[in-house]
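Appendix B, example 12.
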Amino acid sequence: MSPTSTLGEQLDGERFWSDLMDQARFGALEGGGLRRLTLGAADNRARLWLMEQGEALGCTSHYDALGNVFLRREGRDPGLAPLLIGSHLDSQPCAGAYDGTLGVVAGLAVLRTLSTLGIAQRRPVEVVSWTNEEGARFAPGASGSAWFAGRRDPETILAAQDDEGITFKAALADCLAQLDAHGAAFRPEPVVPHAFLELHIEQGPVLEEKGVPVCVVTGIQGVNWYEVEVNGQANHAGTTPTASRRDAFMGAHALVDALTEAVAAHDDQVRFTIGRFALSPNSVNTIPQQARFSIDLRHPDAEVLEALDLAFRHLAEKTWAGCSARLEATSRVAPVAFDERLVAVLDEAVKARCPQAPTLVSGAFHDAIHLAQLCPTAMLFTPCRAGISHHPDEHIERADAEVAVRTLADAVERLLNEEETLR
């Protein structure tokens, strides 16, 4: 490598894109899109593929108690904390091929470049694929990274069940058996990283609208998940007078209106979503006895989330169309601001390739939200067409992705050789 060239410039964009397309084969849906639910057959095969690729480059492969997979390229000083790069390989039930996978394959591209050039970097570097970021099969998501960072109890994670009643523990056992049979080494305790970097698609429209291929992410807004249950009385749809009804659907409808009004009292950065709604007994001629729905609530300010949490709880204590309500918080992830110095390192790499790039706060949660509690952490975003994600139409431009992964590699080059610690 010449004195003026960078690691990013030496990165093989053709091979990077080829690896990304190879990953899209695992769990591919007929007609397009991806279904790679965590700890399922396709997800496990994707993990094994990653290990095979890393081992071919001379890296060692490891896994831990939650099935997080690591590729390690040793440094000149093995005693130094490793620089960690990665994201996740699991997907939503009917998803695109880039959410999460881009960040893992980008890390692999960095390892491939170091190996091809024969660079003996000072600090070890590891690429990780975190388990169950999406939470589509086992809620809540980001299980692997939350456990790794000491943010979630393993027994609670293992007890989670999918829609078929299969526990996380049972699905994980099959995954770990495959990883062990592959010959990967078991790592019993997390190794605290020097820093963590995650490249991800934006999952929003800003970068595409600005015509920018990459930007730095300065933090992630907080996320509260709730389950709401509204209880009424089942009865005959044709014979029960309106005044005598305790219709759980109507009660839920009224409660949702009130929740929406509470959200509207705050700024437009609040994100309020009801993604699941179910009625029981779910019969066309029976008044619903119970309505259940989920709430996904997000905001970058912890005080706003706390205020809305209090408002939601007060509303759940009231009666709605003669029905009682119960609200349960199932997950809380506080907003985080990423490490300022690490953000500056990434921003310098970004501005060298894209001087007009903005900085963004992530609206979606990522594994980085937990790693930020453990070590200096920051992210890069690259645009996705029309901001579409969690859908087969999810799409990124190869040219944008190449700029983003080269930017990541440039930042990695600096971080791998610095002597001082970041924190």
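The CA atoms of residues 72 and 126 lie 4 Å apart. The mean pLDDT is 96.
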